[in-house]
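Researcher: Quick test of sequence recovery. Tokens follow.
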């Protein structure tokens, strides 16, 4: 997938909650589900690893099921699915030799010292906790039918929380760890 395709998929995914919330009463769910399904299928076709392909296919299957069963209310569960998949990716890396965060850190610091490795493992656990919280919050709001709050949380607040977590870790790393 070209860079423009990745950017488009990222933007649609980011704005998905607001697109869905604003268009849910106008019969947009089939169009949005079809677009998301198609984008995830395209992404699956060009992924480099089997795990990335599997994640993309799972998300495409989610939207295909929405289309087949014509259940617009299930569209609220996409952010939950994404958080759970991210939890699976980050969580699985805790059982690998290198966590996902460590692999990313080694792109800038190939000779990461042992304290850096411990830090990346700790940060990976923190992100896992965030994804658990995020999935639970989105699920609770979807399940309770508080769709205004769901749109606000999944479309804005969760991104602010992610940004705060990312920025907080960066500040900690630069000021305390001096890396």
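Model:
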């Amino acid at each position: 997938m070209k860079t423009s395709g990745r950017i488009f998929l990222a933007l649609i995914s980011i704005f998905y909650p607001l697109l869905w919330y604003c268009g849910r009463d106008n019969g947009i769910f089939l169009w949005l589900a079809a677009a998301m399904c198609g984008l995830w299928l395209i992404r699956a076709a060009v992924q480099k690893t089997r795990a990335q392909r599997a994640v993309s296919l799972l998300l495409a299957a989610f939207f295909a099921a929405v289309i087949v069963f014509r259940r617009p209310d299930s569209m609220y569960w996409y952010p939950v699915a994404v958080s759970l998949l991210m939890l699976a990716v980050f969580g699985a890396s805790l059982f690998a030799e290198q966590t996902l965060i460590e692999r990313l850190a080694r792109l800038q610091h190939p000779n990461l010292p042992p304290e850096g490795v411990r830090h990346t493992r700790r940060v990976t656990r923190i992100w896992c906790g965030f994804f658990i919280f995020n999935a639970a919050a989105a699920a609770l709001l979807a399940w309770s039918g508080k769709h205004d709050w769901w749109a606000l949380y999944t479309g804005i607040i969760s991104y602010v929380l992610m940004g705060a977590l990312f920025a907080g870790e960066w500040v900690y790393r630069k000021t305390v760890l001096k890396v």
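Helices lie at 3-23, 29-46, 50-69, 78-93, 100-108, 114-144, 147-177.
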